Amino acid sequence: MEETKKVLLGMTLDELKELVAGFGMPAFTAKQIANWMYVKRVRSIDEMTNISKSNRERLEESCTIGCMDPIEQVKSKDGTVKYLFPTSDGKFVETVYIPDHKRATLCISCQVGCKMNCIFCHTGKQGFEGNLSAADILNQIYYFPASTAEENDKGALTNIVYMGQGEPMDNLDNVMRSTEILTADYGWAWSPKRITVSTCGLKKGLIRFLDESQCNVAISLHSPIPEQRERLMPAEKAYPITEMIRDLKRYDFSHQRRLSFEYTVFRGLNDSQMHVRELLKLLGGMDCRINLIRYHNINKGKEATDGNGISLETSDDKRMEAMRDYLSSHGVFTTIRTSRGEDIWAACGLLSTAKKKNEN
Known about the structure:
Largest sheet: 10 strands, mixed
Low-confidence stretches: 147-153
Order of helices and strands: EHHHEEEEEEEHEHEHEHHHEHEHEH
Strand content: 15-25%
Helix content: 25-40%
Mean pLDDT: 90
């Protein structure tokens, strides 16, 4: 049986130093490998031409970069592209590329499926199949052009959001490893303010993330009323939003690091004047923003409900604009997120679900 090769993608500089030391190679070889991978994006060890041929051959024997191209992609009429990437253990995850003038955002996944079971999320209905390794997370980024704002006219990335499949705080070790490499001088050298990590609320993971990372954080809120939020998001029961807000108020978001709240607006469910007033009570005085999001209904004829039999349908533009204007005029900066890729279900887990069914 062939021995499994070590995957270099996802290794920190310290880990690369330990690796080359084990081969008896000079310590500086580790930085050369990191530069070839994270800066130059080579696809094979043989391309690392400033490493001696004999050392490249030794690395080739037991290591691989571990980068894999997507096996499928679909493009929206608005330019959004959804990719299906294979994982190192034979599963599949979705990644969404969202171009917008001089910005290009990549929405990446951190798990195959999800345990959180939010009732409006298609990924949660897949069930949970496993965590992505740091290599699997970074592989979704590795595929794209060099990530510098100066090259954005070539389609390079300007922002990364961990808002794809899975709950980042439920796979925090690998998420943190990936953000370390994205922001480290030896890695992508991105500013943390270009990276946003989203969570529905796992206390231990969120506190650790806030303490150890300077990346932006986005909280999936969806209702300021705990009982209603629990019907939409079972995670509310384990980590109530009121407790989460108390924890968040201990941190400083007044400088470069941004705190945002994601709020999917459902018609007749969480879009009333009462909800707006409760949002102000909950978030008033915090350095934060609210992103109002249109609900993408993908199950025509099979409507999702809030747990009490109330159908989930997106609110109308007039109501969302009224919510935005009221909140902003009362000191909570609020935007309406532009819907992108709705014709390819860019916000959902349909590509990976279809692939899984075909495999079975």
